[in-house]
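QA checklist item 7 of 12: single-chain prediction sanity check.
[x] sequence parsed
[x] length recorded as 387
[x] structure emitted
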Amino acid sequence: MGESKKPGYRNVVALGFVSFFTDISTEMILGVLPTFVIYELKATRAALGLIEGLAELSNYMFRLISGLVSDKLGKRKVFVFAGYLFSGVAKPLFAFAKTWIDALVIRALDRVGKGVRTPPRDALISQSVVEREAGKAFGVHRTIDQLGAVLGPLLAFLIVPLYGYRTLFLLSFIPAVAALVVLALFVVEVKTPRKERKLFEGARDVFKGPFLLLIAALVVFNLGAYNFSFVLLRASELGIAVAASPLIYMLINLVHTGIGFPSGILADKVGRERVLILSISLFALSSLMFMYLGGSWIYALVIAAIFGAYQGMYDTVSRAVVPKYVPEELRGTAYGVYYLVVGLSFLAGITIVGYLWDVYGRWLAFSYSLVMSLVSIALMAPLAVRS
């Protein structure tokens, strides 16, 4: 597609506001979900890890399917809309959860919606601008997106003490509807030619060469990865009141928001692989802090800030690096393959870390995370040297 025919940053910004409202809906729940699952639904840390891992696996499985089909049909927006609609309907069902199994099913349903929408949305973002500005575009989108992730936990902090968890879950439907309205009215389709090929033919075309090495490095990293839920649990152990856990989550998202756009700009200038290595180094630092910092609630703030910096940088640049290796007509497929493989490794990783923490203690669990992140950096180094 010629540069003059691309819708440009108006599409990126519109999709950013779709994500902004969706993140308000999602993050007002996620800021309290770990404590809700552990303390009200009586789950273990391993069960929490399984919930998050299976949810992300559902997410990534459907990313592969929607990426492949959107490339085959040459359409993006219809998949994006369907995914946001599915998630918006699923999240309020947390209000009716009685066991952690219920929470697992609902979380998985929500992530199915995310899986359906994400590869077509990322392909739409990348196709809205020229390839050399992909880092900037994803940085713009991520910054607007994460503003909702800051507001969501703040709303949870205000609503839960007055009305409880379950009312909060029901209220999450309101911003979800706002996201659908913005998507329907302001996001422009960027069509690509229909491809007359077998459904999985594109996956074989994508999954080779330097892209394969990149995927291998990220698989190793995710085999030792964990998400914000473990940060919130550690914060409670360090003396942060359960009622204040949404504020710790808000801190993670504030740092995430602040670093997303600058990291995208930096990645375009110095190499996306190099900034990706920097983000994994921050994750390794947060793992060290899990291992050694204790005895003061101040350390919970430090860990949350470092983890937020890692997440903001990683989430922006890991998506922006894909267009470098893949032509436009295969980007939905590339994102789908990428997310599926990474999702499978993350399912294993977060479950392993949760199990190790439960059975052998915090030090061994996060030593494992640290080692896997260092191995990932070593694997990615050749790509960074070439960038």
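[x] summary fact logged: DSSP finds 16 helices and no strands in the chain.
[ ] second reviewer sign-off
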